[in-house]
Specification:
The protein has 168 residues and is mainly α. The chain contains 4 helices and 2 strands, in the order H-H-H-E-E-H. A two-stranded antiparallel ribbon has the order 1-2. Strand 1 and strand 2 form a beta hairpin. The N terminus and C terminus are likely disordered.
């Protein structure tokens, strides 16, 4: 079965037309947007008095915050690598890119479930940290998941991509 990124010859021996069409490129661009945001946003959100520079935070909490920020960068880079890799099995690369793109956001969404977790420390829990009644983190997670889902839908193989290219 060919996928939407395949450029292997068809059964007739003629090379297939490039199957990386505008939909697949749009999907890759969406994954890239999520990847870049995932790589950079932890530093924008956390390198301030609410997290890394917060004098009330214990050193070990700052250690784990640093771990989380570095993980965002690494997952963003892995997403970019697999989204744009052109060798081997493109379908597997797409699935890897989608998985890497979502891991950071799934872990952030699950973080509120841990005992004693809160979206904000009390001194930073202000009305401007909510959008439509949701904590800003939840809104960002929803946006990231929506972009990843749209990218997956746009990048998936189309029925026409499974048909041999015409020699006409």
């Amino acid at each position: 079965m060919r996928n939407s990124f395949s450029s292997a010859p068809t059964s007739g021996g003629a090379p297939a037309r490039s199957a990386v069409g505008p939909r697949a490129v749009a999907g890759k661009a969406m994954l890239s947007l999520v990847a870049l945001f995932t790589a950079v946003s932890p530093y924008l959100a956390d390198w301030n008095d609410t997290h890394v520079l917060n004098p009330l935070w214990p050193a070990h909490a700052k250690f784990h915050n640093g771990q989380t920020m570095a993980m965002g960068t690494l997952l963003g880079l892995a997403t970019l690598y697999f989204a744009w890799r052109r060798q081997d099995d493109a379908g597997s690369h797409l699935r890897a890119a989608i998985t890497f793109a979502g891991l950071y956001w799934v872990s952030q969404a699950a973080a509120i479930l841990y005992p004693g977790a809160a979206y904000f420390d009390p001194q930073f829990d202000t009305p401007d940290m909510y959008i439509a009644g949701l904590p800003v983190q939840a809104v960002i997670e929803i946006a990231a998941f929506a972009l990843i889902a749209a990218a997956a839908l746009l990048s998936r193989p189309t029925p026409a991509s499974n048909a041999p290219a015409s020699n006409n």
